[in-house]
Amino acid sequence: MKTDNPVKLSCRNVWKVYGExxxxxxxxxxxxxxxxxxxxxxxxxxxxxxxACNVSFDVHEGEIFxxxxxxxxxxxxxxxxxxxxxxxxxxxxxxxxxxxxKISDKELIEFRRHKMGMVFQNFGLLPHLTxxxxxxxxxxxxxxxxxxxxxxAREVIDLVDLTGREDxxxxxxxxxxxxxxxxxxxxxxxxxxxxxxxPFSALDPLIRRQMQDEFMRLQKMLHKTIVFITHDFxxxxxxxxxxxxMKDGKVVQIGTPAELVLSPADDYVMEFTQDVPRxxxxxxGEIVINGGSTDGLPRVNASSNLEQIMPMFANHPEGMAxxxxxxxxxxxTPQAVVNALASESNSNxx
Amino acid sequence: MGPKLHxxxxxxxxxxxxxxxxxxxxxxxxxxxxxxxxxxxxxxIPVADWINLGMDWFVATFKWLFRAFNxxxxxxxxxxxxxxxxxxxxxxxxxxxxxxxxxxxxxLSLFTALSLGYMVVTxxxxxxxxxxxxxxxxxxxxxxxxxxxxxxxxxxxxxxxxVQPILDLMQTxxxxxxxxxxxxxxxxxxxxxxxxxxxxxxxxxxxxMILGLQKVPSDVIESGLISGATSHQLFWWxxxxxxxxxxxxxxNQTTMAALSMVIIAAIIGSSADIGWEVLSxxxxxxxxxxxxxxxxxxLIAMVLDRISWGFSDRTRAIERNHLPxxxxxRPWFVALGLMVIFTLLAMAVPFLRIYPEAWVVxxxxxxxxxxxxxxxNYAHVTDAFKNTTYFYFLLPxxxxxxxxxxxxxxxxxxxxxxxxxxxxxxxxxxxxxxVKHGWKISIAAIILLIFLYFGITAMPWIGFILxxxxxxxxxxxxxxxxxxxxxxxxxxxxxxWPQAMLSVYMCLAAVIVCLLFGGAxxxxxxxxxxxSNFLRPINDTLQTMPLFVILIPFLMFFQxxxxxxxxxxxxxxxxxxxxxxxxGLRHVPEEIVEAAQSMGCTNRQILxxxxxxxxxxxxxxxLNQTVMFALAMLVISALVGTKGLGQSVxxxxxxxxxxxxxxxxxxxxxxxxxxxRIIQGWSLKRKEKLGISx
Lengths: 350, 694
Ligand SMILES: Nc1ncnc2c1ncn2[C@@H]1O[C@H](COP(=O)(O)OP(=O)(O)OP(=O)(O)O)[C@@H](O)[C@H]1O
Ligand SMILES: [Mg+2]
Prior knowledge:
CATH architecture of the largest domain in chain A: 3-Layer(aba) Sandwich
CATH topology of the largest domain in chain A: Rossmann fold
Bound molecules: adenosine-5'-triphosphate, magnesium ion
Distance between the termini of chain B: 28 Å
Oligomer: heterodimer
Number of domains of chain B: 3
Shape of chain A: globular
Number of helices of chain A: 13
Largest interface: A-B, 35 and 22 residues
CATH class of the largest domain in chain A: Alpha Beta
Distance between the termini of chain A: 33 Å
Strand order of the largest sheet of chain A: 6-7-8-3-9-10
Radius of gyration of chain B: 28 Å
Number of strands of chain A: 13
Shape of chain B: globular
Largest sheet of chain B: none
Strand content of chain B: under 5%
Structural class of chain A: alpha/beta
Helix content of chain B: over 70%
């Protein structure tokens, strides 16, 4: 599991309050408050907007961490707090243990130059630069020579399959192609952590699907630590290791896709997960029966979902062995599948 | 249409009744109490004198500073002028054609060659080069000032809140008005033209650049930030290039404004430039000559406009950047080569150096003769046109039907039974409107009838101020209303009220015609592509033309006088009405039109019942522009004899009287600002009601 990897990025009680005098609600910068309800009420009553309220989560190395929520729930605010495109009102953002909110402007610039990459919903390409120049732009900012940076840009262009369009201008490209440029640009500096703020929301469903595959292909190669924002739960399901669901600036629940589907924390989370086909979410690892004999049974991977394993029961009604990282961890049986789906439809039908 | 709900709402009626009563009373009493129309001179506040005192002190104290500045600026100007005069004309033509080619291609290059060729052949080369020299010095100056102002205003809200109103004022105060203080501070000489045009030309640069910077999408800025850009890098590599389109539009407008001001500055007769050529011949009634010189100005304007516009269309420039190596500079090498060759050749071949006098084609005399022939033989046509418009439209507006109708003008005497008839019909009409369309229309009709009978210039000031300010209050609240009250009071007490009313009258007359004809043309163009394509280049050309030039053709046929000015104002100010009307009608949301079609509306119904109501706010914006354009032209037309504030400014310029000039100029600006707030406010309100966003 990715969650076994060391923590790369950690948000501790992060707040972003908009309004006249947002500092009044916090005694110290740590963002820890005694009575969360009370402070929330005070913020609302005094005409302030709590765009992010007491948000805490960890992102592990190589993990795809997805932030989800309805429009206005504070997703963009959170990712901008981490990259300090907006200054959080209170809290801590630790990257490899170092508090990003305490570093100087100079350090921040260095940090952004070498460790962060970001992809934007509306691409944010520079209209006056060609594809190649756009991709090389972060390197230009670092003062890298033209020859070197263009060579590096050509490498990443191959990565996103845009070879041949180097000299086009952004306006001559389709939305999907523009976002490929955005992705390539964010990868040009080989960032350690990669932010994507609704990168595919502006694209057609078909292209979106394509881009998601592309994204997964890239991630298989690059193993970046990723914070990805979306409001599309299906997208989150396909990509996420873990998902954080936000509502009105607060994190409502954090968990793997299956955890969210199987045990939603409240109605808000349930709304999101309602239309999701369970068979795609629930994996063998989650309904595994420990113990019992698995000798001679075919093996399935713990991360396979029910949709993938169910056809196999036709030949092996007795069940299959579940393995994780090459080790057998237990048995999955048709009965277990039926149970999982049944408990599902019960809770759903209520 | 039946009575609308909100018109049954009588709130707001009471103040109108009160205002109308006061107006009626003061009209009644004005024969006995002259101060109701004209304030006695001992009631006036000597604002102009105070300004003069302040100005005297300022000039005495800081003159050295400005004179030093003058001295410094004089050098580059003299160098540019003598360089352009020294350079053999074929070399200059080659240089211009190259710039035109780079900016937009062969066609513009050819047009530039022909335009410059015209200057050479008609013997206007030397004055044209003098004008261009001034323009070339003032444009970079204006751009630099604009750039700095825009950056500071963009970065600081405080600076922005100071800069914006100044920009408003600078664009509404007539150009002549600030020629005077500049003249006093900088002394005579060509530098005055440079300074005046740099000041006059920088607002569009500032505005467009601020707009461009504000329009840069936040995604783009954030992508720069996340790449680790320092604020310096962010500004020059991200924000400025992303705003380039707007900045280039600003440069285009600044160029045109600079040229137009350089031409106007000729009025102080500072240098032997083309503006002076037009003006001096115009004064001598040598219309052929001034037409030929005017064409030069028109050509310069078009060439500069197309070139700077070409540069703002970045596509080509970008493609060229990607030509390999030196190839992208090829046109420049060719130009440089040609310039050197021509310069060398000119040493051996004299006609290349200076175009010989004997070869000049200057058809001024035939033009003048043709003109004399036309005016002699078709005088009855032009006179009939002039007199009809004058007696049946202009005169009643100015002094009212009550005075305008006489046996000499209308062919009969206005008897008292006719007056009663007018009053009765008017009363019946307003009553009918009241019942049928609500009180607002009815009140508007009453006011119109009163103005029409008594005339604008004879209105008691109290009525005029109350009516406009009440309107301002209902549209824009107390802010607009107090602007109106204070503005008119300023004109009243500083002693320029009669002139102000003359200006209002002239402007109103022109605007009415613009609205009727421009509106009709705009509607036609919105329905018919051919008309639209035919009108567009004409409109474009009229808008880029320095105001001066527009006077010439009308002057030729109608001589000096109010009527010529009237036509010239219409010619210039009608453009926005046409444009905005067409634009408004064409850009009604598609689905609304389709919905109407699916209900079975005829085209005519769609136009009048669907498109028109939705386009009205846009048309009002056009009207607003028309008013601004009319006022701007009104000042220039003082040259051919209008009365009013424009004339006062012009007189003040002649006497180098900054007090009078600024008071009259400020008055003009106030009229413009008050009209602007009322019309824009109305348009905004209307848009909100219709749910159309800005
Ligand atoms: N500069 C600001 N000033 C005041 N309020 C703001 C500002 N920026 C964001 N907000 C508020 O903060 C809240 C969260 O905004 P945010 O952009 O983070 O939402 P989001 O989840 O990214 O939504 P979307 O899916 O629409 O992008 C919103 O209610 C928004 O109105
Ligand atoms: Mg967002």
